[in-house]
Structures are given as structure tokens and as C-alpha cells.
Amino acid sequence: MFRQASRLLARTTASRRSRAFSSDVPATPAQDSNFIESWTKVIPNIDPPKTPSSFMAPRPATPSSIPTKLTVNFVLPYASELSGKEVDMVIVPATTGQMGVLPGHVPTIAELKPGILSVHEGNDVTKYFLSSGFALIHANSVADIIAVEAVPVDHLDPALVQKGLADFTQKLNSATTDLDKAEAQIGIDVHSAMNSAITG
Amino acid sequence: MASNAAVPFWRAAGMTYITYSNICANLVRNCLKEPYKTEALSRERVHFSISKWTDGKPEKPTIRSDSPAE
């Protein structure tokens, strides 16, 4: 019954060891030369079709020395706010606290809470308010920031934020079920984050 | 296997991450200044054209518009 066990165990541990981290970026060639070769052998009169790898730029390999700039991709469901932009630093609102990301940051995946994302470029600081999302920081000094909704801080209306904060504080006191309480708590969290974003 | 690690309060109340993040996004949209608010809310609106099929033929379609819940 357990004849295969040792072999299976050895295989699982071996494969686990060799598996790369998802944040490690494999350096992929732009075109698969094997594919092109076999294509021209079989159909020499037709050009080989373009594959996704010829349309998509491969991820840059991790450089041995730390680059001076951080490449940021900042995407929303409906827009691409920053695409491959080279900046000095970003500060993301992680659930564990504000997290500054500089070039050469260790690979991390961070869940984001409602708060300010600031993009530092020399003396220019661009501030966005994020509702929630994730930041994926890769070993090659590329940071992908994904959010559901992000707006420039000056697009927020202070009067509406104050009103919402008061409404949800009242809602939390009158809430009876766990779900209602959680919804009210989310309301308070988001509105206080917006409030401190506007005032601070 | 369920994890025994501490979970956020909204998860403990039975919400999923999608529900939580959509609530957060809606609250932010509702606090925008005027030209941006209408734009953001109209972007999130969804329209369905629904028609029931009877005897293998579709009936007259009805349009249902859903704006995200508050």
C-alpha cells in the first residue's frame, strides 16, 4: 500500500523546493525560436503567427544592482492611471500601516486599506485616495498597484465626508445584526480615512 | 482547512472581500465633488435586457438598470 509513498514524498518535496516564488520574474524570450523553426519546416510559405509573447513586453529581469527608479503600474478596473512610470518612491496604505516602497524593495504582496497612495517623483508628490486593493511588489523594482476606486484627493467633497461619517456613526449605534454592524464599521473606516486624507 | 488566524471584522460578519471592496469603492464614489461624482456613478451603472422564452420564442425584452447598492 505504501510502496510508492517514499517516492511520492520525495517528489513532492523536490518539486516544492524547485518551485519559484510567484514574485520571481522569469526572463522570457520575446519569440519562441523552437516554434518558429518548426513552423517554417511545416509551412514555409506562410509567416508564423504572432503569439502573446510578441505583443507583450517580457518582464525585465532582476538586475544585480538596485536601480535608482521604481517602475509603477497603477491600474483601476476602468483606467490605467500609471503604466510603467518611473518614480522615486510610492507610499501605499497597507492594512498593516503606511508602507513606503523604494527601488530594491523585497518582493511583497500587501492588502491595501482605504487611504492615501502618494507617488513621489523628485519634488512632485501626486496623491490619490484608494478605496481598497492590493500592491504587488516584484523583485525587479516593479510595483503593481491595483485598486477598485481611486480618485485624486482634491476631488473629495469635505461636506459629504463629514455627513457620511456622522451617518455611519449613528448607524453603528442602531445596528443590531453582525452584518449591519460590519457595514457601519466599514462606513466609519472609509469616511475617517477620507477625512484624514482631506485634512492631513 | 479553515484557518484559525485572526480575520478582519467584515470577514467575521460573513462578508467576502469582493463585497467589502465594493462597499468601500461605493462610499468613496458617493463622497466625490459634483462633476466627478456623476461620472463615477454612471460608469458603474449596469443595464440588463431580459426576455422570457415561451414556446421557443422570446417575449418582448424588458430593460433592467442596476446602479450599485449603497
From TrEMBL, chain A:
Identify the residues that the record assigns to the ATP synthase F1 complex delta/epsilon subunit N-terminal domain, covering every copy: 70-142
Keywords on record: ATP synthesis, CF(1), Hydrogen ion transport, Ion transport, Membrane, Mitochondrion, Mitochondrion inner membrane, Transit peptide, Transport
The record's section on Pfam families has: ATP-synt_DE_N (PF02823)
Q: Name one GO molecular function term.
A: proton-transporting ATP synthase activity, rotational mechanism
Kindly list the GO CC terms recorded for this protein: mitochondrial inner membrane; proton-transporting ATP synthase complex
Q: Which InterPro entries match?
A: ATP_synth_F1_dsu/esu, ATP_synth_F1_dsu/esu_N, ATPsynth_dsu/esu_N
**Coiled-coil region(s):** none
Q: Which domain of life is it from?
A: Eukaryota
Q: What does this protein do?
A: Mitochondrial membrane ATP synthase (F(1)F(0) ATP synthase or Complex V) produces ATP from ADP in the presence of a proton gradient across the membrane which is generated by electron transport complexes of the respiratory chain. F-type ATPases consist of two structural domains, F(1) - containing the extramembraneous catalytic core, and F(0) - containing the membrane proton channel, linked together by a central stalk and a peripheral stalk. During catalysis, ATP turnover in the catalytic domain of F(1) is coupled via a rotary mechanism of the central stalk subunits to proton translocation.
Q: Subunit arrangement? A: F-type ATPases have 2 components, CF(1) - the catalytic core - and CF(0) - the membrane proton channel. CF(1) has five subunits: alpha(3), beta(3), gamma(1), delta(1), epsilon(1). CF(0) has three main subunits: a, b and c.
Q: Which family does it belong to?
A: Belongs to the ATPase epsilon chain family.
Protein's recorded name: ATP synthase subunit delta', mitochondrial
Automatic annotation (TrEMBL), chain B:
- This chain's source organism reads Hibiscus trionum (Flower of an hour)
**Family assignment?**
Belongs to the eukaryotic ATPase epsilon family.
Keywords, alphabetical: ATP synthesis, CF(1), Hydrogen ion transport, Ion transport, Membrane, Mitochondrion, Mitochondrion inner membrane, Transport
How it assembles, according to the record, is: F-type ATPases have 2 components, CF(1) - the catalytic core - and CF(0) - the membrane proton channel. CF(1) has five subunits: alpha(3), beta(3), gamma(1), delta(1), epsilon(1). CF(0) has three main subunits: a, b and c.
Q: Which CDD domains match?
A: F1-ATPase_epsilon
Q: Name one GO biological process term.
A: proton motive force-driven mitochondrial ATP synthesis
Q: What is its main location?
A: mitochondrion
What is the annotated role of this protein in its UniProt record? Mitochondrial membrane ATP synthase (F(1)F(0) ATP synthase or Complex V) produces ATP from ADP in the presence of a proton gradient across the membrane which is generated by electron transport complexes of the respiratory chain. F-type ATPases consist of two structural domains, F(1) - containing the extramembraneous catalytic core, and F(0) - containing the membrane proton channel, linked together by a central stalk and a peripheral stalk. During catalysis, ATP synthesis in the catalytic domain of F(1) is coupled via a rotary mechanism of the central stalk subunits to proton translocation.
One of the record's GO cellular component terms: proton-transporting ATP synthase complex
Q: Does the keyword Ion transport apply?
A: yes
State the compartments where it is located.
Mitochondrion inner membrane
Q: Which InterPro entries would you find in this protein's record?
A: ATP_synth_F1_esu_mt, ATP_synth_F1_esu_sf_mt
- Which Pfam families does the protein's record reference? ATP-synt_Eps
**Gene3D superfamilies, alphabetically?**
ATP synthase, F1 complex, epsilon subunit superfamily, mitochondrial
Per UniProt, what is one GO molecular function of this protein?
proton-transporting ATP synthase activity, rotational mechanism
The answer to whether UniProt assigns keyword Ion transport to this entry is yes
The protein's name in its UniProt record: ATP synthase subunit epsilon, mitochondrial
